[in-house]
Design brief:
The protein is of the alpha/beta class. Helix content is about 25%, strand content about 35%. It has helices at about 45-55, 75-80, 95-105, 125-130, 160-170, 190-195; strands spanning about 5-10, 20-25, 25-30, 35-40, 65-70, 90-95, 120-125, 135-140, 170-180, 200-205, 215-224. It is globular.
Length: about 220
């Protein structure tokens, strides 16, 4: 079997371990410590995060999306495939190296979505953008951790608190949608969303899309 080759390392603000990028033949993997955060071989649920949100908002004029977490670019690429020419997608990415990887060694994986004129990536914590925007986005897509707990970066927890969810609701346009990706189910998160004033449901999707694989979770939540 071909061994994994370490390509690069990067610091994550607020995390104790480095983010590492590996390659094995044509496959890439991002890992934090012993945890694989994402792989180029399995991205069906990242595509679904964008598709499920765009099902609700893609036909709106001047549609505006905020994506928290660039990853390998698959969610951004999926959103751009669904959106019209007048749409704009702002991606908040905390780690400069992830942006550089997506413009370099990873660029072809998702079809170079950062080169689409509708896409803008900002070196920023998505929480900071959410705090400062009011009725700015038709959809907010969060894939900044392995789910609604800050397992890779404790500061991410704020996004899923009552205060963070209230700020996200305020950042959405009327009828806008919050979509949250998770590696697995969290029985407490749907009630938390509802207490925060959202109509919410959890959708289980295949990690590999139609080809199967593990089931990941995506929450879709609309402020009442």
């Amino acid at each position: 079997m071909i061994a994994w080759e370490l390509i690069d390392c990067a610091e994550i603000p607020g995390a104790t371990e480095q983010l590492r990028l590996y390659r094995r033949d044509q496959e890439y993997s991002m890992r934090l410590g012993g945890t694989e955060l994402m792989t180029s071989r399995v991205h069906g649920s990242e595509d679904a995060l964008a598709d499920l949100a765009c099902d609700r908002v893609a036909d709106r004029p001047d549609c505006r999306l905020l994506i928290g977490g660039l990853g390998m670019g698959y969610t951004l690429a999926a959103a751009l495939r669904r959106l019209k020419g007048d749409a704009r997608v702002l991606v908040a990415e905390l780690v400069p190296a992830v942006i550089a990887w997506n413009r370099g060694v990873l660029a072809e994986l998702a079809g170079r979505p950062l080169e689409d004129p509708r896409a803008l990536v900002e070196l920023s914590d998505v929480a900071a953008l959410i705090r400062t925007r009011r009725q700015a986005f038709d959809a907010v897509l969060l894939d900044v951790d392995n789910g609604p707990e800050g397992s890779t970066r404790p500061r991410n927890n704020w996004l899923y608190t009552a205060a963070g969810l209230a700020a996200t609701a305020a950042a959405l346009k009327p009828g806008g949608v919050l979509a949250v990706w998770s590696a697995g189910p969290d029985q407490s998160f749907t009630p938390r969303l509802r207490r925060a004033g959202f109509d919410a449901r959890c959708v289980r999707v295949r990690a590999r899309g139609p080809r199967g694989g593990a089931r990941h979770a995506i929450w879709l939540a609309v402020p009442r």
